[in-house]
Amino acid sequence: MKQAKIHPAVTVCDHPLLQHHLSILRNKHAQSDVFRATISRVAQFVLQEATRHLPLSTHGIETPLTQTEVNHLSPDIPIIGAPILRAGLMMSDVMLNLIPTASIYHIGLYRDEQTFTPVTYYNKLPTKMDYSDARVFILDPMLATGGSISAALDILCQLGVKQNHITVACIIAVPEGIRVLTEGYPDIKIVTGALDERLNERAYIVPGLGDAGDRAFGTL
Ligand code: PRP
Ligand code: URA
Questions:
Q1: For strand 10-12 and strand 2-3, is the pairing parallel, antiparallel, or unpaired?
Q2: CA separation for the pair 208, 9 (Å, rounded)
Q3: Within a domain: residue 70?
Q4: Active-site residue flag, 214
Q5: Which letter does DSSP use for residue 186 in this model?
Q6: Which residue's alpha carbon is at the smallest distance from atom 4 of ligand 2?
Q7: Is residue 26 part of a domain?
Q8: Residue 14: which CATH number?
Q9: What is the pLDDT of residues 134-187, one digit of tens each?
Q10: Does residue 68 lie within any of the structural domains?
Q11: Orientation of helix 16-26 relative to helix 32-50, angle to 10°
Q12: E-only strand ranges, 52-188
């Protein structure tokens, strides 16, 4: 894994297989079924890295041969995947595959096409829970202006999630979005499958892969 020069909070996963799958995703001729399956494959690499620092507890068990100590996820530490609708949905099954006991808290946001600012349309996250130990993984393939993920971070921090317990997991990010997140939320971590060049005049990532939600769900 490469610690991106752009900021110490950012890790770019540079596994050769991930790069191979990204080449399929970036191709405008990939159909929705291929696109969704390939996002899952890339997300697997990204989430393995994003979850690297999850805390473990130790307890004793008996194997068929002897007694030993094993490490496991602590049941006292809630693990939450927070997919940003719609495109983040493609990453939530990957998260559940890796951590079947995780909870999935959906956040509905879309980017206004004129202003590029996020509009929240779904937020039913539990308000009575104690979030102080929760480890939260924001799932969204695209970090462009950073507006959508900032809005998700606002929602989570207002509920009491600690910034240093939040990791943003994405497939492609650009320096503009990374700057917005690391300035607004200096204690979060960001793990991405690629660091692209820039945004174009319509705030799309270049070279990018186009509109992730539309490509995934066939609404182009
Ligand atoms: C896309 C993407 C991110 C957002 C990134 O969602 O999945 O959520 O854009 O852009 P930003 O960093 O500039 O905010 P979109 O608004 O297209 O919604 P959709 O997934 O429902 O199509
Ligand atoms: N949202 C996307 O889906 N793609 C981009 O390039 C930018 C924002």
A1: antiparallel
A2: 22
A3: no
A4: yes
A5: T
A6: 211
A7: yes
A8: 3.40.50.2020
A9: 999 999 999 999 999 999 999 999 999 999 999 999 999 999 999 999 999 999
A10: no
A11: 150
A12: 56-62, 67-73, 79-85, 103-104, 107-111, 118-123, 135-139, 142-143, 166-173
Task: Tell me whether residue 211 is one of the annotated catalytic residues.
Answer: yes
- What is the CB < 6 Å shell around ligand 2? 142, 144, 204-205, 208, 211-213
Evaluate whether residue 62 is within a structural domain: no
For residues 71 and 16, what is the distance between their CA atoms, to the nearest angstrom?
30
* Domain range for 15: 2-55+75-217
How many separate domains does the chain show? 1
The catalytic position among 14, 93, 154, 211 is: 211
End-to-end CA distance of the chain: 34
Among the options 33, 115, 117, 133, which is catalytic? Answer: 115
pTM score, two decimals?
0.97
Those residues with Cβ within 8 angstroms of residue 52's Cβ, 6 or more apart along the chain or in another chain? none
Whether the CB-CB separation of 79 and 73 falls below 8 Å is answered with yes
